Amino acid sequence: MxxxxxxxPQPYTTTLQLASTNxxxxxxxxxxxxxxxxxxxxxxxxxxxxxxxxxGDSPGVYFRNAxxxxxxxxxxxNPNALPLSIQKKIxxxxxGPEIEAERRLLRGETARSLINNAFIVPxxxxxxxxxxxxxxxxSEQAECIxxxxxxxxxxxCSDRSRSKPIILQKRSPIIVGVAHCKExxxxxxxxxxxxxxxxxxxxxxxxxxxxxHQFTASLRCVxxxxxxxxxxxxxxxxxxxxxxxxxxxxGVACEINxxxxxxxxxxxxxIQFLELDAAPRSDEEFLSYCKSDDCPDEHLNGHNDLSPxxxxxxxxxxxxxxxxxxxxxxxxxxxxxxxLAYNPNExxxxxxxxxxxxxxxxxFEKCKPLEFERHVRSLSKSAKKYKHHEIRNMxxxxxxxxxxxxxxxxxxxxxLLLQYAMLLIGGFVNEPVSQDNLRESSxxxxxxxxxxxxxNYPIRPTTHFASHLPEDALKYGCGIEALSAFVFENFYRFFxxxxxxxxxxxxQIRNKLVERSKYLLPTSADGMIINSSMLYEIEIKKxxxxxxxxxxxxxxxxxxxxxKMVFSDFVLTNRFPNNVCLFKNGNxxxxxxxxxxxxxxxxxxxxxxxxxxxxxxCVKPYLSTKYNTFIVSKLDERIGEWNINNLLxxxxxxxxxxxxxxxxxxxxLPNVPNRWFTTPIRHTIL
Length: 686
Hints:
Helices cover 31% and strands 19% of the residues. By secondary structure, the chain is an alpha+beta fold. The protein is globular, with a radius of gyration of 27 Å.
C-alpha cells in the first residue's frame, strides 16, 4: 500500500488561522521527513510533532480513541480545559455539543475566556521519556530511540491560582519522534525539534494568546534510566566518581571481591557511594557542578557540552526523576537477587538452597492470578534474565514465602526493608504521600544501605540512588511508581513488532503509524465501535466506572462451572488462584460461588469459607498485618455469605512452608494443617 501526504491526519484550523492562510496554498501535509543527524548518516530521525500530538492530530497518537474518551469525560464537566481540536473530535462522536457550538457561533459568542483582552487557552503538562529499543537480538545492530510523552494533566490555563489541573487517570504514551542509530546522536540535534516546540508553546511567552495556538504546554519531568538521562543532561554516567544526581559526594573505587585465584589478572572495581547524608544538589546550582580551581565536582561533562533542556529553564536536578523501574527494581533489588544466585561475596545460596527456591517458584507458577502476565522464573537459571515485572512481583508479592526458612533472618529482614519502603511510597496513584510515610521511607532506605555496609556488600550507584526516591514522591505529590517507565516499556514492544524487515526501519514505522491513523475505526479499549451517540454515552459511563476507584461490577459470566466476576481492575472467580479475597471487616475468604440476590437485582453475595487463623507474615522490619499481609490457616468447614459491596481487595495467595513442594494442595479443604501466605494485589485495594 502506498502511503503519502494525502494519508496524513489534517490538523484542526482555527478561524484566525483560516483568515491568514490562502486557501489556494493549503495542501495536504507531507509525510514527516526522515533526516540525517550527522554527516556520515549514522543517525536518522523522524519527527511527528509535539503540538499536533497534543491536539490529537498526529499519527504518533497511538491510543487516539481511548484518549479521546478520557478527554470526553473531562469535556462533560470542564470543556474549557480542552483545545478546540479535541472538542471537535468529541463532537463527531456526539452531535449534541456540536449543535450548541453552532448556535454560539451564530450568536457571535466565543467559547474562550477573556482576561485583560487576551484569550486564555488550555494548558497541557506532560512527562517525557526516551530509551533505546533493540529491533534485533544482535546488539551490534542499530537501535531505535523513541521520544515519547504522556499527558499528566490539563487545565483551563497555566496559572494554577485560576485553574486547578485535572490529572488524567489513564497514562498513554504518544510518539513525538523516533531516532535510529548505532550510537547515541548529538543530543542537540536529536532534541532540537521538540525543544523548539516546547519553547513555542511556553505559557510564559510574552505574546502567548490564541493567535496561532490552541493551547500551551510545559514539561513536568523526564523519565529515563541512568545511561539515558546522563546523555540527556550531559553529566557523568553511573561509572563516574561524581555521578550521583541528587547529592554532592565523590564515589569511592572499591575492589570487587572474587574467588579468582589468578593473581596476575587485574581485579575489578566498582564505584561506591558510602555517605548517607551528603549535601543535596540544587537546580539553581546545576551549572556550578563542573570541575574548576575552586570546585572538585566533576558532575557536568563541561561548560562546552551543555544540555538543550537548559534552554527551557528546566530544573536540571529535580526535573529528571529517580526512575524506580530501572533504579530500584532492576538495579537495587535485581542486584541483590543476582548476589543470592551467583555471588559468593554477597551471600550466595548453596546449591541445595537454590534448588529449594527454584522448587517453590515452580509451584508458585500455578498460583499466579489473572492480573499478572508473567510468573517468576527459576532464580538459579534466570536471575540475570529477570524482566522488571518479575523482580517487582518477587519483591512485593512472593518474597517471604519463597525465602522463608532458607535465607538467614538478618538477610531476609534486610531485603524486606526494600519492600517496606515501596509500601510506604510506592503505587501508581496520583495522590500525595503522607509526610510520615516520606520520613519513614527515607529512614528505611538509609537503614538498608547502612546494613549493606555492615555486611561488607558493595554500595553500587543504583543502590545509593534508590535512597533518593522519597524526594520525588514529595516533589511530584504521587506514589513513586507513577513516575516509573513501566508504561513506556510496555508500549515499546510496538517498535519491536512492527518491522517487516531491517530495511529503512524509520520509514516503516512512520508509514505504519500513518496507515493506522487513517484506517483505525473509532473503537474503545475493548473493541467496541463507537458509531452512535448512544454507544458514545455507554463508553463514557464505562470509562467513568473504571476510573472511579469503586468496586463496581462490570460483567458476570458462568461457563462450565466457573463463575467469573469482572471488576474494573481485577477478576474474581470461584477457582484458585483467583478466588481468595479480603473483606472490609478483615475476613480472608475462599470463594466457592456467587449468588445474585435478589434475582436480576445486580446485587451479589459471595459464598465461601473463612480462614479462622491469621498470623503475621513478618514482624521485622515491619508488621505485615498493618498492610493486610497474613499467614492464614484453619479454613472453616462452615459455609458463609458476604455482600460483594463489602469487598476490600483481591489477594495473591501461595502455600507457606510446605513439607513437599511437588504438588499444590487444595485450598478449599477444611481441617487441613496447610498454611497459606496471602497479600493484597495492591492496585485492587479500594
